[in-house]
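Long-time lurker, first post. I've been practising inverse folding by hand and with some scripts of my own, and I keep getting stuck on stretches where the structure tokens seem ambiguous. Below is the full token string for one chain I'm working on. Before anyone asks, I'm not after the true native sequence, just a reasonable design that respects the backbone. If someone could post their per-position residues I'd love to compare against what I wrote down in my notebook.
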């Protein structure tokens, strides 16, 4: 609501609370789900961003369309769907 941007790395493999399982490169891993929880609690849209290094040493950023995370996903146990 304040017009600020928060960047969280969603590809961090993690264990413990606030994590969820997801398939990545053909394997099941547990990832941080903090971004899903924050988006659900605040109503802030999620803007997926992917970064790749190009052969010439530059970076290629890809911004995908924003999407909302419904408020009830944590209580309903649907966090893993978003991760």
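-- Answer (accepted) --
I ran through it position by position. Result:
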């Amino acid at each position: 609501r304040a017009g600020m941007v928060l960047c969280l790395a969603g590809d961090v493999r993690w264990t413990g609370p606030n994590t969820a399982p997801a398939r990545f490169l053909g394997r099941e891993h547990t990832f941080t789900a903090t971004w899903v929880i924050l988006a659900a609690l605040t109503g802030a849209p999620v803007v997926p961003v992917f970064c790749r290094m190009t052969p010439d040493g530059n970076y290629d950023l890809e911004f995908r369309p924003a999407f909302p995370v419904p408020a009830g996903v944590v209580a309903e146990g649907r966090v893993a769907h978003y991760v």
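A couple of notes from the structure itself: The beta strands are 19-24, 27-32, 49-53, 59-63. The chain has a mean pLDDT of 90. Happy to go over any region you disagree with.
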